[in-house]
Write a structure and sequence with these properties.
Shape: globular
Helix content: 25-40%
Bound molecules: N~2~-(3-carboxypropanoyl)-L-arginine
Structural class: alpha/beta
Radius of gyration: 21 Å
Strand content: 15-25%
Largest sheet: 3 strands, mixed
Number of strands: 15
Distance between the termini: 48 Å
Length: 447
């Protein structure tokens, strides 16, 4: 079989970490701020994620997993001037500024759509798979992720002949980069060369362009362009489009909250892009069989899109399927306008063949739907063989691991408990063995 036939899109989902909690840290992300102070269930969150991974693997889609990060991040506390043992720094931070402790404790690395941007080997001029870990500089609790993300990606995609993991872009606001959440690859079929759509919120080096007024635009055009260059994409394969500032101001903090694409289908809301006509024309010219699926505001408002996360669904085409499946959050069934849109527009004879709904409520309450939880990596059969483990090898062991190490509930006050750090380290130490990752965490390197 030719590589084109055996090339598949794998999803690498983030395993939710033991400190998953609701701290309201993401201004501009309505779910995050509106659930601030709620009690979270790290165990339930991790199990919900694992059952989505298992369901997608059962459809014949390659499914991998990316581990959580070490939290609380005591190195951050130390850099911010706290002194003493780890337990003493946690206690002092809890007293001085509980929000700071929440920043150091966030399990936000679970949203792996923000871990990196990826280009498959068949699109890159040098024939290698490229990863650029996102710098995530807009939010401190996320800006502490890239270093470990780079280490984890280098451990999983270890074959340097096939995979290249770049350094994150400079940590400056002109280069704000949020990874694959603002990137979609369009192509007639996964195994054929693709066109990369990079969506940005503002220009980073020039202040005279339209930008949102209320909420931050996290991704800049300059960052997207740099990633396209690093990934060795020929010019004709990279397309840049600006997200409408007004939708960012309504809570669309990443493009994947208002658009998702797969193969020839681009599923998006009519208010998503500043210059929709030009974008559709370019994609129509460059992607054979390009199929826009446009949702009008009269049928689904931006507010309903943000509440239900309709566009944060995954679009996947399992082997043997003619048309893609919409992997949607349960919330889409509970929103009348969204349910009606799906009933009328998904199914037989439509570009999107079917919708299935998943309970990911723990992640959703922090603004992370099905698509936020996964990083897409298009891999040939040989590249897949160079990567392990896949979820089928570890799913049951991970379920047992979560049940053994995770708490059922975690409130803001619980973050002050130094025991949580010990529990988390014990869990992550066991996890690196279970996944065969080696020492990827700071606490494993200092001993
Ligand atoms: O960066 N939420 C994440 C959600 C990321 C969703 N990812 C994608 N759309 N691809 C964020 O805003 C909330 C954490 C808190 O409030 O505790 C948070 O970080």
């Amino acid at each position: 079989m030719s590589p084109a036939m055996t090339t598949l899109e794998a999803n690498f989902d983030g395993l939710v970490g033991p400190t998953h909690n609701y701290a309201g840290l993401s201004y501009g992300n309505v779910a995050s701020t509106s659930h601030a102070g709620a009690v979270a269930s790290p165990a339930r969150a991790a199990l919900q994620g694992l059952s989505k991974m298992k369901a997608l693997a059962a459809l014949g889609l390659p499914q991998g997993v990316l581990p959580p990060q070490e939290r609380p991040d005591v190195r951050l506390l130390h850099r911010l001037g706290f002194r003493g043992s780890d337990a003493e720094m946690i206690e002092a931070a809890a007293k001085a500024d509980p929000t700071l402790l929440a920043v150091a404790s966030s399990a936000s690395a679970m949203w792996t759509a923000n871990a990196a941007t990826v280009a498959p080997s068949l699109d890159a001029e040098d024939g290698r798979v490229h990863f650029t870990p996102a710098n995530l500089i807009e939010k401190v609790h996320r800006a502490i992720e890239p270093e470990t993300t780079a280490r984890v990606l280098s451990a999983i995609f270890a074959d340097r002949e096939r995979f290249v993991v770049h350094a994150p872009l400079p940590a400056a606001s002109s280069f704000g980069d949020e990874g694959a959440a603002n990137h979609t690859r369009l192509t007639p079929e996964v195994g054929e060369p693709g066109v990369h759509l990079f969506v940005y919120g503002r220009e980073g080096l020039r202040g005279d362009r339209p930008a949102p007024r209320r909420y931050p635009a996290r991704q800049t055009l300059e960052a997207s362009r740099a990633v396209a260059r690093l990934h060795r994409l020929p010019e004709a394969r990279a397309v840049f489009a600006q997200q409408t500032p007004a939708v960012i101001d309504q809570g669309v903090f990443h493009n994947d909250v208002i658009a998702v694409g797969h193969e020839r289908v681009l599923f998006f809301h009519e208010e998503a892009f500043v210059d929709e006509a030009a974008l559709l024309e370019t994609l129509g010219e460059r992607v054979e069989g390009f199929t826009p699926v446009r949702v009008p505001a009269a049928e689904v408002s931006v507010q309903d899109a943000v509440r239900s996360y309709l566009f944060n669904s995954q679009l996947v085409r399992p082997p043997g399927w003619e048309r893609p499946l919409l992997v949607a959050p349960e919330e889409c069934r509970e929103n009348d306008a969204v349910r009606a849109w799906i009933e009328a527009n998904v199914g037989e004879g439509q570009p999107i063949g079917e919708a299935r709904f998943f309970d990911l409520r723990e992640s959703m309450q922090n603004g992370g739907g099905p698509a936020c939880l996964r990083l897409r990596v298009v891999l040939t059969a040989e590249e897949r063989a160079a990567v392990s483990p896949w979820i089928d090898d570890v799913h049951d062991a991970l379920v047992a691991w979560v049940k053994r190490h995770y708490r059922d509930r975690l409130s803001a006050d619980d973050l002050a408990d130094p025991q949580l750090l010990d529990e988390s380290r014990t869990a992550l130490d066991a996890l690196t063995q279970l996944l065969g990752l080696g020492s990827v965490y700071p606490f494993q390197q200092n001993r």
